[in-house]
Amino acid sequence: MTFSGLAKISFLAIAFLAGCTSKSEVFSGRSPEQVWTVMATVAQEPDYENWILLENNVWLDSNYDRIEINRRLKRDYHDEGANSIRQIETLDMQFVLERTDPPAVTGTVRNRMIPVKAHAALDQFFAEMHQLLEPVTNVEVDVIEMIELVPAESVDEPSSD
Asked: Over 60: is that where the pLDDT of 11 sits?
């Protein structure tokens, strides 16, 4: 049985879209309790720049160090020269804390979606975690030189009579 080029591409596309996407990150220098607290905070209070959060259902299972998240997001996508397109995404994600030294978190997008989008969702979650766990250390400050202004002395001008 031979497949035509289009059939092969279709088969690969379907296989590519099916299944889960996972990613793990390690949090050195942090305790499992700190990581769990930040996981819960990011799950319950997500920060999206380009999306509007329609629903955010979060289930915290501290017995198994697991968080289940179901989110609905929307945005109007504008492509140059084209009309805007309303996009609505559903994310079904799970994050599990591994109480190792150092602690690690594995995130999984459980619904079928393009892998690039699934990786972006996981990257967003982990970026928010890192932002909360790592204080800002390199802050650029513009230095302004202060000059003391001294009042001018009155100068007597010679009269020109």
From this structure: no
Question: What is the fold of 18-133?
Answer: Alpha-D-Glucose-1,6-Bisphosphate; Chain A, domain 4 (3.30.530)
Place of tokens 């929307």: 74
Helix axes 115-133, 32-44, angle to 10 degrees: 120
Tokens of 141: 């400050």
Q: What is the pLDDT of residues 15-54, one digit of tens each?
A: 444 557 899 999 999 999 999 999 999 999 999 888 999 9
Establish how many alpha carbons lie within 13 A of residue 10's alpha carbon, considering only the half-sphere containing its beta carbon: 5
Task: Report residue 24: phi and psi, to 5°.
Answer: -120, 145
Distance of CA 39 to the CA centre of its chain: 12
Distance CA 21, CA 122 (A): 9
* Phi, psi angles (nearest 5°) of residue 122: -65, -45
